[in-house]
Structure formats: C-alpha cells, structure tokens
Amino acid sequence: MWDSLIIGSGPAGLGAAIYGKRAGLSVLVAEKEYMGTGQIAESGQVDNYLGLVGKSGYDLGEIFLEDAKNLGVEFYEGEAVAFEKKENGWSVSFENGEVIEAKTVIYGAGAKHRPLGLPEEADYAGKGISYCAICDGAFYKKKVTAVIGGGDVAVEDAIFLAGLCEKVYLIHRRDSLRAAKSLQEKLFTLPNVELVWNAAVEEITGEAFVTGVQLLDTQTKEERFVAADGIFIAVGIQPVSESFKSLVKTDEAGYICAGEDCCTSVPGIFAVGDVRTKKLRQIVTAVADGANAVNSVQEYFQTR
Ligand code: NAP
Fold first, then answer.
1. 157-196: per-residue pLDDT in tens?
2. β-sheet bridge partners, residue 125
3. Ligand 1 pocket by C-beta < 6 Å: which residues?
4. Exposure of 32 in the CB half-sphere (CA atoms within 13 A)
5. How many whole angstroms from 4 Cα to the centroid of ligand 1?
6. 156 C-alpha to center of ligand 1: Å?
7. Distance between CA 152 and CA 173 in Å, rounded?
8. What span, in angstroms and rounded, lies between the C-alpha atoms of 151 and 156?
9. Span 61-90, mean pLDDT?
C-alpha cells in the first residue's frame, strides 16, 4: 500500500511527488492516456515561473518530469475512475480494471477546455475548430485564424498564431481583456492581429471545414462575419472532478473545495492545482499546492 497515490502529473502532482519523495513517503503518480505534464504543455512560452523564465510550457514540463524521475518517483499510466474507502486508506480503480491501494490520495487531475456551447462546435472539431494553438497552429501556416476569448490562454494563443498565420482575429465579448497586462502589451504590438471587441459568437459557419464566424456586436447590435480557416476556442477551463464529485465537497462549478492546506472535506484526500477552489490558477500556485499537500499528508499521518 502506497503512502500517497498522486492522480495527475501536472505541476501540482509532480510538485507533490517531489516533496513526498523527499519526506520519505512512498508515492506513485498516476496519469491517464500518457505520461504528460498537464495543461502547461499547451503554453507556448512561460514568462512568469521564477528561475526558468522564457521556456516553452512543454520544455518546462519536461524539466519537472525529469526532476521527479531523478528523485526516483514512480509512475503509472491509467485513468482513475472510482475511489473506495478501506480501513487503512483508499482503493482506487482504474479504467483498465487494475486497483491500486494507498493510505492517502492527492488529487491533481487539473482542468480541461470549456466548450463555447454552440451546437455546431462538435461537428467542426478537427475540421477547423481547435482548443489548442500549440498543438494545431501549424495546420494554419499563412492562413487566417480567429481566437475566441479574452483570458491568458486566448491572448497567448493569438500571440503564438500571429507568428504563423497571415492574420489573426482575437474575438472577445467585452471591451477589455482579462489576460495579464504583459501579454496584452505584447499582443497590441503585433501588426497582423485584429481585435474584435464586444463580439458575441452567434454561429461558426462551415461546409466540410470551418469558413468563419458570425458575430453580433453587443453594443451596436450590428452583425459581422469574420472569414477564417481556423477557430481557436479559449473561453476558460472546467475542472476534471467527475469521478470525485460524489466523494468530496465541490463548488457549483465542480472545483474541489480545499484551502491552501489542500485538505478536502474527506480526511486522507487532498486536492491540488487547478482542480481545487482557489483564486489564482498558475504554475507557481500549482507547484506550491503539491508542497502544501504533502505537508498536510504528514500532519494527517501524525494525528492517526
Ligand atoms: P479565463 O481566465 O477564465 O478566461 C476565459 C475568457 O473567455 C474570458 O475572457 C471570458 O470572458 C471568455 N469567455 C468565457 N465564456 C465565454 C463565452 N461563452 N463566450 C465568449 N467568451 C467567453 O480562462 P483561460 O484563459 O483559459 O485561463 C485559465 C486559467 O489558467 C486562468 O486562471 C489563467 O490565469 C491561467 N493561465 C495562466 C497563464 C499564465 O500565467 N501565463 C497562462 C494560461 C492560463 P470575460 O473576460 O468576459 O469573462
């Protein structure tokens, strides 16, 4: 039986793994699909992580992974689907039928892209609609793309695409962006980016592939069509907490309720990174969660 089973190998999970290993705990990191490093792999350049400024998200994730491996952290590939309380801990079932037992669970499965919610969205997935500029941007070299959203991800995507595409529209529903000021300043210098403010997306049009996006100006009520070969949707994230919802307390949006100590409503279960309730979702706060969770795991063991 492991001391801690860590679900998720993003910065939060790997942070927990490193702190757990150094605390002398037996830890196993489980990650679904492939041994990735979470959402950071989709960030073109990370300029706000102390000591490693300017690395691509992918490279930063690889460094985190390497650090964990060098400390002897063990990994398991599989998706955790069910959690059952046992006398001394938890029995976690994976989609492949395997069961892993651990005294504590550190849950850091992160968040996934939030869809825009249009009926045609699913029809054009992979046919001009994408949720990841780093992954799919290369398909649109010298073409016209549109990014929808006004947060860090939308602006990062627009900056990245501006380096590849002939023209990039950034379509936002309000008249100011919520992205970090430094990202905005960079964006505003790019000659091939056009900002479309106060624009509600009414429809994504297409035939075999996407042809553009039909917009409504929320102020003037004027209609506008923006022709584009590719549409990148970056309208936020939603927590990956489905299999956990019946077990621990979550908020209305599905984030697992936990404070800075990462303790959830259930003793022995800890939530880290983007999946927990918090104000600031950044790499640095995710890594910090990993450290805090291990501290809480140690306190949990001391009080039992
Ligand atoms: P976000 O910060 O929640 O921004 C989502 C954006 O989409 C907002 O501008 C929002 O508009 C817009 N939006 C939401 N629903 C919409 C809809 N139905 N139609 C049109 N627009 C809609 O999400 P994010 O950019 O994906 O970032 C997720 C988290 O990761 C954030 O906490 C972010 O700070 C963090 N992150 C940080 C970095 C970094 O530090 N470099 C990089 C990437 C991500 P409103 O503004 O009007 O609400």
1. 999 999 999 999 999 999 999 999 999 999 999 999 999 9
2. 129
3. 43, 48, 116, 148-154, 156, 173-174, 178, 234-237, 281-282
4. 13
5. 32
6. 11
7. 15
8. 9
9. 95
Confidence of residue 34 (pLDDT cuts 50, 70, 90): low
* Residues listed for the chain: 304
Residues labelled catalytic: 132, 135-136
Please give the number of the atom of ligand 1 that sits closest to the Cα of 116.
18
What's the half-sphere exposure (Cβ side, CA atoms, 13 Å) at 71?
23
Ligand 1 atom index nearest CA of 176: 46
List, in sequence order, the alpha helices (H) in the chain: 11-22, 57-70, 133-136, 152-162, 181-188, 283-302
The residue whose CB lies within 8 Å of the most ligand 1 atoms, and thus the one to mutate among 129, 178, 214, 276, is 178
C-alpha 114 to ligand 1 mean position (Å) = 10
pTM score: 0.90
* Model pLDDT for residues 78-121, shown as the tens digit of each residue: 999 999 999 999 999 999 999 999 999 999 999 999 999 999 99
CA distances to 14, 162, 239 from 255, in Å: 20, 33, 6
For the chain, report the end-to-end CA distance as a whole number of angstroms.
16
Number of neighbouring beta carbons within 10 Å of residue 95: 12
Give distance in angstroms: CA of 148 to centre of ligand 1. 10
Nearest CA to ligand 1 atom 2: 151
Of ligand 1's listed atoms, the one at least distance from the Cα of 150 is 9
> For ligand 1, what atom is nearest to the CA of residue 283?
40
Residues 6+ apart with CB under 8 A from 201: 116, 118, 148, 171, 213, 214, 215
Q: 52: which 2 tokens?
A: 């490693």
What's the rounded Cα separation, in Å, for the pair 293 and 276?
12
